[in-house]
Amino acid sequence: MPFQHERLDNGLDVIAETSDCAVSASVGFFVLTGARDESDDLWGASHFLEHMVFKGTAEISGDDINRRFDAMGATVNAFTSEEDTVYYASVLPERQDEAVELLARMMRPALRTEDFETEKLVILEEIRMYDDQPPFGADDRCRAAFFGRHPLARSVLGSVDSIRGLPVDAMRDYHRRRYAPGTMVLAASGAVDFPALVAAARRLCDDWEPVPTPERIVPAAPRAAVRPGIDRIVRPAAALGYAVSMVAGPGEHDPDRHAARLLAILLGDSSGSRLYWDLVDTGEAEQAACIHEDFLDAGLFVTQLSCDPDDVAALTARIADIYAAAPGDITPEEFERARNKLASRVVLGGERPRRRLFEVGLDWAHTRIHRSVADTLHIVESLSLDDVRRVLAAWPLDAPAATVIAGPAA
Amino acid sequence: MKQTLHSATLDNGITILGEHLPDLESVAVAFVVAAGGVHDPARRCGLATLSGEMCLRGAGGRSSRRIVEDLESAGAQWAHGVSGTHSSYTGAMVARQLPVVLPIYADILRRPLLPAGELTAARQMVLQNLAALEDDPAHRALAALQRIHCPAPWGMPTEGLTADVEAIAIGDVRAFVATHQQPRGMIVSIAGRIDWDDVVARIDALLGDWSPGPDVPVVDGPRGPATCHVPHDSQQTHIALGWSVPPYRDDASHEATAALSILGGGASSRLFTEVRERRGLCYTVSAGYQTRRHFATAACYAGTSAERAQETLDVMLAEIDRLPGSLTEEELDRVKARVKSGLVMQQESSAARAAAIARQWYHLGRMQTLAEELERYDRLSVPALEAWLAANPPSDLSVVSLGREPLEVPRALPA
Fold first, then answer.
1. Which of A338, B283, B320, B321 could bond A126 through an S-S bridge, CB–CB 3.0 to 4.6 Å?
2. Mean pLDDT of B44-50
């Protein structure tokens, strides 16, 4: 899978990982902007802005955008995280130019007041929807307890009050500052015509002004939960109890993040892991999972538990025991199985251009490095049990955690 | 678009389907048996789901743990699921692992140990899932719609009913597996980097000498009431609407699915435009098509704040009413483009193709090439769609609301 890269004069990077076997092309804009870049009075602005980008430009209405993508047969969507806002479309190769053109034009939205007020209602519905769904906000509350005053503490959606209070001018200013060519990447994967991609970028993005983007706020990230202990959310109608716990793990720039991912699979994958056999297979927990998340300057091991509300405390204690025992008794066989699983995910995931788009685009946006499927596979296959043990020693899973429990009673 | 499709039938009735996708490194396999939720006996709703779970708890010479360890050592991404009609055991893996993986599935299918000692844990697992679904309001609204709209037993929840699951005994599980997990009606579909002759020889060796049992027909019962409110303490009210449309095997299903797609299939659809984009009433609104072999349901869903739920329902009903006589060429062209992309992009996933050819075989008794399916959609025209809609306007509407207060269904629903 050849990799190609070109930089426009204004600093916009255009990259592609092309494949002869793919029947589709995926293209996307990766904007280095997320919840961590917001101030208190802009809380939720990155995600709200992502919605507003679909409401059109000075020349193209929001309805037109929806119609044009559907007419291309495009699978199109966007997401906002703590660190990134990503817009993407998957199309048949003959539609590449149309898709790139529309996405590029969308990056310069009109941000009309009237659309802003209507879309505000949609965002408020999205907040209510997640608030009604497990784990009932426990994940956001837990991240806030772990990170304290660090910018990663900020939830992506914002709050009902912060969204209601956000002025449209503040969003326009935020867009001008953050959607600058130097903080954006145009990435593509699959059956991509790279010269055509670059030509389109020159035609559509060359006049984007290279505004100096404020440096991303990177204060020292906590290496332990800022507010360890248990917090509670009461939902009288909930049928199950939900617990989310976070301890520190390696971040994106730490070479040990691969071993951390393998460790999370070994301990807490959705099947065949230690948590699975001890808690899920026995029917005691509906879910018991361990996930490794990484950010620019921080990492987390997140434990998610759902079970009978009366069992949350006892099962949380059991998980703590499983974590405490891990450094001493991981067997070479279970290490090998977890490594095979990880390797298989890398290979099978590599067959889908859209999956590759996210990996290639985010890797480049964050590190200016391209890693092929073969490169990643090589890293996974080189991992040893010692790597996993080193992660466990450096990032103890039984460290004091930030925990939030949601359920029918306090 | 050149496709290589294969099929073979073993003497005991098992159908083997294959699609060769030479550009992929992977292979996906699906073992699909006619052991779905509609076969649950009275007062044993959830038996198919619990039986499927029990089949994974030891089979042939393998313990519960060995089954999973052997699959995962081979790098197989495996899953098991039970639908209304089928129980499916699936796996995707790098092609060279297929010979290691197939015998594990053969054990699960033919030689499940069904140990009495595992029943409590397996039952708890099913009950945990039921409790989790209680916390998923969108799922509950759509499940309630199925329950009132479909003739019994087709609308019963495959995941089970708590009281019924609690009453299931090991004898029920063993009888269910013996009766329904059998070669009759079974499909093995496999897609990806395959050697067809080798696949057939291996599956024949593993399953060819398995004797079929008798066919077990399902008799349709009555339908439920047209409307239903499910009280739930939530900020949002969830709305589900359904009506009958032709099943996939009926040629008119193309007209029906195209009309549904115009109503609620994409971001430019009527529902998305009018309910979300124009009025900001909700985050999620959509229309979908759920087909059984002999009937199908159009189902619309929206979730919105309680105080705006009535307006949301009114706008949804108005858009359904407005559909006949108002379709445009541009809308139909967009449907065709979406169908084409979706079908072509399936080629990039061995798992999606294995599932698609199994589904076609069950519904149509044959596989369709992508070109054939595309050609059928390309032939659709606005006049033909309008003629079909005029003859088959959305009728027999069922309406479900889930939330704090019931909604007013503002007009007499067609019977």
1. B283
2. 98
CATH of domain B4-207: 3.30.830.10
The architecture of the domain spanning A3-205 is 2-Layer Sandwich (3.30)
Topology of B227-403 in CATH? Cytochrome Bc1 Complex; Chain A, domain 1 (3.30.830)
Secondary structure of chain A in the HEC alphabet? CCEEEEECCCCCEEEEEECCCCCCEEEEEEECCCHHHCCHHHCCHHHHHHHHHCCECCCCEHHHHHHHHHHHCCEEEEEECCCCEEEEEEECHHHHHHHHHHHHHHCCCCCCHHHHHHHHHHHHHHHHHHHCCCCCCHHHHHHHHHHCCCHHHCCCCCCHHHHHHCCHHHHHHHHHHHCCHHHEEEEEEECCCHHHHHHHHHHHHCCCCCCCCCCCCCCCCCCCCCCCEEEEEECCCCCCEEEEEEEEECCCCCCCHHHHHHHHHHHHCCCCCHHHHHHHCCCCEEEEEEEEEECCCCEEEEEEEEECHHHHHHHHHHHHHHHHHHHHHCCHHHHHHHHHHHHHHHHHHCCCHHHHHHHHHHHHHHHCCCCCHHHHHHHHHHCCHHHHHHHHHHCCCCCCCEEEEEECCC
Report d(CA A357, CA A89) in Å as an integer.
10
Q: Are the C-beta atoms of residues A286 and A307 closer than 8 Å to each other?
A: yes
pLDDT at A373 over 90: yes
B266 touches chain A (CB under 8 A): yes
The pLDDT assigned to B412 comes to: 52
3-class secondary structure, B201 = helix
B157 contacts B44 by C-beta, under 8 angstroms? no
pLDDT tens digit sequence for A177-203: 999 999 999 999 999 999 999 999 999
Q: Tell me whether A159 touches chain B (CB under 8 Å).
A: no
Instruction: Say yes or no for a CB contact (<8 Å) between A306 and B132.
Output: yes
Closest by Cβ to B236, choosing from A22, A128, A280 = A128
Which A positions 200-239 lie with beta carbon below 8 A of chain B? 236-239
User: Chains A, B: CB contacts under 8 A, how many?
Assistant: 184
Q: Averaged over B215-230, what is the pLDDT? A: 92
Q: What is the residue whose two structure tokens read 């303490």? A: B233
Q: Tell me what pLDDT residue B415 has.
A: 39
CATH superfamily of A229-407: Metalloenzyme, LuxS/M16 peptidase-like (3.30.830.10)
- Arithmetic mean of pLDDT over chain B: 95
- β pairing state of A229-234 and B398-403: unpaired
Chain A residue numbers with beta carbons less than 8 Å from the beta carbon of B132 are: 134, 239-240, 286-287, 306
| DSSP bridge partners of A231 | A404
Compute the average pLDDT of residues B397-414. 84
Q: Where in chain A is the domain with CATH 3.30.830.10?
A: 3-205, 229-407
Q: Answer whether B284 sits within 8 Å of A129, measured CB to CB.
A: yes
Whether residue A283 and residue B284 make contact (CB cut-off 8 A), yes or no, is no
Q: pTM for this structure?
A: 0.95
Q: Are strands A13-18 and A184-190 parallel, antiparallel or unpaired?
A: parallel
Name the percent of chain A lying above pLDDT 90.
94
Point out the residue among A70, A126, A283 whose CB comes nearest to the CB of B266. A70
* A129/B278 CB distance under 8 A: no
Delimit the CATH 3.30.830.10 region(s) of chain B: 4-207, 227-403
- Mean pLDDT in residue range B7-34: 96
Which pLDDT does position A20 carry in this prediction?
A: 84
Q: What is the pLDDT of residue A220?
A: 81
Contact B27/A at CB under 8 A: no
What digits encode the pLDDT tens for the residues A270-322? Answer: 999 999 999 999 999 999 999 999 999 999 999 999 999 999 999 999 999 99
